[in-house]
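Query protein
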Amino acid sequence: MIMNQRRLTYREYLLLLALTGLILFVYSGAIHFEFTNWDDDIHVTNNPSVKILSVKSVADLFIPSDKYMYHPLTMLTFMVEWYCAGDNPLVFHATNIALHLINIWFVFFIVFRLSRNNVFSLLIASIFALHPLQCESVAWISARKDLLSGMFVLSSALLYLRWKEDNSLSSYLASVSFFVLSLLSKPSSVILPLLFITYDMMQEKKLSWNIFKSTVLFVLLSIMFTLFIVLTTTSHSELPLYYYSVTQRIVLIFYEISFYIFKFIIPLNLSACYSYPQLLDGTLPVQYVLGAMTTFILLILVIIYRKRIQTATVGLVLYCIFILPVLQIIPFNNASLTADRYVYLGIAGLTFCGVAVVDLMRIRFKISSWVIAAASITLVGVFCFMSLQRITVWKDSITLFTDVIRKDPNTAIAYGNRANARVARGDYEGAIKDCNTLLLLFPNEPKAYFNRGNAYSELKKPREAIADYSMAVGLGFTSPNVFYNRGNQFFILKEYDSAAADYGTVVRLSPAYLAALIQLDSIATSVTKDFRSSVKYLTEYVSYVPNDASIYYKRARSYASLGRYGDALNDAAVAVSLNKNRDTTDQFIMSLNDAVDSINTALISISSALPLRDTPLRKKLLEERSALYMSLGDTLRAKNDMAKSVLIH
């Protein structure tokens, strides 16, 4: 690789700006896309945790959950966006595009710092930016964790390279800080120390203590975070890879390595979900074995020719390090064996390798630079066109999963998610058809019953809906949504005990599920007349949303029903202060004021009639006054009067 030792000129910055404009042209259509039900519902739209921005809710994000992987910073970005824009997906998509743009600039600057070759750096940044494999990470809101962690990984790497040049403590500490942020964005960032060790080995040309001395803090943080993730993982569902033997798992790991290389070279037939292979008489299909053999042969060739293709080898090593956490060496639960988003940063390594190979061919065969330039521009143009086509698949859930089904009709999860989307669109019969297809493929798929239950509930068939929701629960689907939806069907049938039990389960599973608290309050106030429970539910609601006037008004009524007029009056006053449009001549508030006035009048009357000597009459009047003080919320005076009455025999 020709090394051009100089700084960037204005022309290079203008080319970067032109690349930025091209990227915006390709990806800007995504801002008009909807949320999908491919994890966007779990992370955002149906996740009560991100819809409340408070100190408590932010702190809760840093507590591990079995609903999704540990990425609190990613969830925090969703929380802030929801607070600013509500359920408008435009803001979420715009953030993803912005993060991708930042990462492209970082890739350019890192490669330029390593090579000092502006053409080399710009070409790698362009392919990294526009390769069709990147569409999933950019267009899918839930892939935010890959973009955010990628930004912090690249920031940390850039600062590490600066530290190696200027030996500044501030650069080193900043690099460590960004590494921590990357870990909190996505756990797979634990591989970053391997990148630094690889870089240091290239500089030192041999193993030495200096290599590990520079990265010891990064390694310790990586180990500690890995142990934290392992020890706090609470999911006990059976992992898909456990269906295969140890030998088959090794074959699949080698297959995954070649899969991404093949898709990088020929990005055709891309899908949001690549199913796990179905065993044929206990053996893997031949394409998986061939893929593993391809990886093995490539490894041998790299070892043999590593000195001749040193730069290309570095790119392959970077690629392997980036995809190491998703190779399922340690199995994890995922619907796909492979996924386009898994190779988000890995594409930089593959591009680095590919451009290095082309440069070697240019030198070896004396190919004109104009030919290379024309081929590069053509390649980028082809990738632009392919990405423009690919990104439209992420328009909405129905488009997305129709594409998945077209690529692989046996992808079970695609039928379930499309059914869910069809329910949202009002196509209930279509949803039931998708669920029935899914149940033919996999009779024990709980989400099929859940989605069919949703369709039946919309068709006003509560008994059928309850039966399907119960099947989903029986098969291990314990999302708060299934219990909430089943509770609603019980509520419609006026089976309030069963409804309350389901709503109670929802609150235990997800304390911030406010709709369930409202339903529990409705049962408590309208059916069971259990106003103490009503106060409990509404108080829990207020702990998450302290500025909802209607909730204070509801709780005021419950307090009044319990005879706690002082607390009721306080809540009514808060409701009025929060809702300036509320009519202060409201009949309830007026009656509440009348009740408090009556109590105060009674207190004056009792106090004036209270005998000075200890007599049965004094005891009775003290007890009555204690009860009146308690109704006003004056617990100190109430307890004082009760204590005095107890002393009178």
